[in-house]
Design a protein that fits this description.
Number of helices: 11
Largest sheet: 8 strands, antiparallel, barrel
Shape: globular
Helix content: 10-25%
Strand content: 25-35%
Strand order of the largest sheet: 17-18-19-20-27-26-25-24
Distance between the termini: 15 Å
């Protein structure tokens, strides 16, 4: 076979680097170059000669793994592919694969010639927190639960050791599932956040870890259960603090006391009003990062947020029972330090049937504030200064009954404390003001800019969404006849010209105005593997990200109903749903991110957390077989992967 000329090689690389391509391994480039030797008139030669531009792309999904191959169920599995179509009609197919940057608990380069423990926990003085639960095996705690990840680049990076181009990733670690003795450690440790400096190979797009930097969170009083994340339009990492600690009853919260003990060395020091906010990480050119916590976006169960293209409107996920749909409209572009907080009110017609038109949305203004003034309130006010909250009916008409986390509360706001209530007791105050506080676990959010549609994941549809369910209230406008544990994804039309409940104009062109169901899962009786939801449909969606170029919604599962959780791709035009990846059994898919073009390459980030977190009802048929395999793969179940989808060299086809 004749060899490709240098010019044809360069042209082929130019064509494929200009596509929204997943990065290729080194052998993929060899295959690509060999393809340039296709005889004249062949598909590769035609593409190289014409430079035909990108037309469209689609994913070819994979089957779910089974016990026919137990090893495949105990690791990350990718048997899917990307089909790329050019405008001249030719196509290319790329088999996908998964590449971790590291497994938590590994030693990773600190950029200074030394190493750091990936996912390692530190206290308020940035000293290691030691797991002493097993005598003789004392070691620093590290997370098995990496979550939100943002991939970004800077104009003038200054990190030594880069051979290609510097790319950065911000990765947060939500919690540790257990200590070495097996005792539950959820929410008892301050969440770490790291900046990764990655070397992008300009020939292949492959990313390799050069530097791991732990972000100092001490000035923000540490971090609480950092879950999903998003990349802001101004290139910062927008983090989250999930399941805000209930300040009204914090004296009874053993979890929060343990958190305070680990962070400050004293279980009585941590202030619950410092947590449940929105942290923002700015990456510096040297691969370090700085963090600020914004106090004016509502103290809710922040899962992840999505900033709209106006650089001001922020749609927020609220991962709680009796949660709401919240929007923050910033006073100034690219600054979350001041603005107005709104909660949605559902009109009639709410439905989880994708065939139905759904319900209109209106907006209730909760208040306007700066982060500085709410932080001052958090520093100085006690819960009893803001409102009285009772768990039993006082038989006093001055109290209002609300539902909070599925339980009835009777509340009364103290005179003059409306702003403090709006921003520090947001769930209760939003209910009091008439917001539709009946969703259950509204998690990931993302936006389809071209169509002006926002997507919100409901990890499940139960409890407060179901008539007579825990926390259900007719005023929410949500009244399902039965639960859908598998959950689904809602789509909301975005528009301007909206007003709040007082008639005042809302200064945004990106407010949700109507909500309908897009995709829903299907609960089933346990199948042969143990699945409690149809494995060929999305179940318990959590992370959401949208690719404008691919017209594709990416979905990561946090499922108590699939034996293996999956990452999916859903094309909003063709309605094709494709399974891209399977996580180790018992693990949740996290860290989902999509970058359409970074120096010519497209990236899909994906992590997982708590592999082998067995649930007897779900994993009873597989646990005995899979547990030793998962333990062998992931540091006795203490480790989890941070990484991205790439293209496997065996899958490149040119003609």
């Amino acid at each position: 076979m004749s060899q490709a000329t240098p010019s044809s090689r360069r042209q082929a690389l130019k064509i494929f680097a200009s596509l929204p391509m997943l990065p290729l391994g080194a052998l993929s480039v060899s295959s690509l170059m060999a393809g340039c030797a296709t005889p004249a008139g062949g598909a590769a030669s035609a593409a190289a000669g014409t430079g035909s531009p990108f037309a469209s792309a689609s994913f070819v999904g994979m089957a779910a793994p089974s016990l026919a191959n137990p090893a495949a169920m105990a690791t990350t599995l990718v048997n899917s592919s990307l089909q790329v179509k050019l405008q001249d009609g030719s196509t290319r197919a790329f088999k996908l694969a998964y590449k971790p940057f590291f497994i938590t608990g590994e030693q990773v380069p600190d950029g200074k010639g030394g190493t750091l423990l990936a996912g390692g926990y530190v206290n308020i003085l940035n000293k290691p927190i030691i797991d002493k639960s097993v005598s003789g095996k004392e070691r620093q705690f590290f997370s098995d639960c990496p979550d939100g990840t943002s991939l970004l680049q800077l104009a003038n990076p200054k990190v030594p050791g880069i051979k290609g181009k510097a790319v950065f990733a911000v990765v947060q670690f939500e919690y540790a599932n257990a200590d070495q003795s097996g005792a539950d450690a959820y929410g008892t440790l301050p969440s770490p956040i790291a900046v990764l400096t990655l070397d992008q190979d300009q020939a292949t797009g492959a990313l390799s870890l050069v530097k791991y930097h732990s972000v100092n969170t001490s000035e923000a009083q540490g971090m609480w259960i950092t879950c999903g994340s998003s990349l802001s339009p101004w290139n910062t990492h927008l983090s989250s603090e999930e399941y805000e600690p209930d300040a009204q009853f914090i004296a009874d919260n053993k979890q929060f006391k343990a958190f305070s003990k680990n962070l400050f060395g004293d279980e009585g020091v941590a202030n619950p009003y410092h947590y449940g906010h929105l942290p923002e990480v700015t990456v510096n050119p040297d691969g370090t990062g700085s963090l600020v916590k914004h106090f004016c976006l509502g103290r809710i169960s922040h899962e992840l947020v999505q900033v709209m293209p106006d650089n001001r409107t922020v749609l927020m996920g609220d991962d709680a029972t009796n949660s709401g749909l919240f929007v923050f409209v910033a006073d100034k572009e690219k600054s979350l330090s001041a603005g107005t907080l709104y909660v949605a009110k559902l009109g009639t017609g709410f439905s989880i049937n994708p065939a139905d038109v759904g319900a209109k949305l209106s907006w209730i203004k909760l208040g306007h504030a700066t982060s500085a003034e709410i932080e001052k309130m958090a520093n100085t006010l006690k819960p009893s200064d803001i409102m009285t909250v009772l768990k039993a009916d006082p038989l006093d008409a001055s109290f209002t009954k609300v539902f909070h986390s599925g339980a009835a509360n009777w509340i009364k706001v103290k005179p003059g404390m409306e702003k403090a209530a709006a921003f520090l007791e947001t769930h209760r105050y939003a209910y009091l003001m008439g917001g539709s506080m009946g969703f259950s676990k509204m998690e990931g959010t993302t936006v389809n800019i071209k169509d002006k549609v926002a997507y919100s994941a409901l990890q499940n549809m139960q409890d407060s969404m179901v008539k007579t369910g825990k926390g259900w209230n007719a005023a929410s406008g949500i009244a399902l006849d039965k639960a859908l544990i598998a959950g689904g994804i809602m789509a909301s039309a975005l528009n301007g010209g909206q007003s709040d409940q007082t008639g005042a104009a809302i200064k945004s062109e990106w407010m949700p105005t109507a909500m309908r169901a897009l995709l829903v899962g299907e609960d089933i009786a346990p199948d042969a593997l143990g699945n409690l939801a149809n494995p060929d449909k999305v179940s318990n969606p959590d992370n959401l990200k949208f690719s404008e170029k691919l017209r594709t919604l990416f979905i990561g599962e946090d499922s108590g109903t699939h034996v293996n959780n999956f990452v999916w791709a859903y094309n909003v035009d063709t309605k094709q749903l494709s399974r891209l990846m399977s996580m180790p059994s018992g693990a949740e898919a996290t860290g989902l991110g999509v970058v359409d073009d970074m120096n010519g390459w497209m990236y899909i980030t994906s992590n997982f957390q708590h592999p082998g977190d067995w649930q007897p009802k779900l994993h009873g048929k597989v646990q005995a077989t899979l547990d030793p395999l998962v333990r062998a793969n992931y540091n006795n179940r203490f480790g989890a992967a941070v990484g991205y989808l790439t293209a496997d060299h065996t899958g490149v086809k040119l003609g």
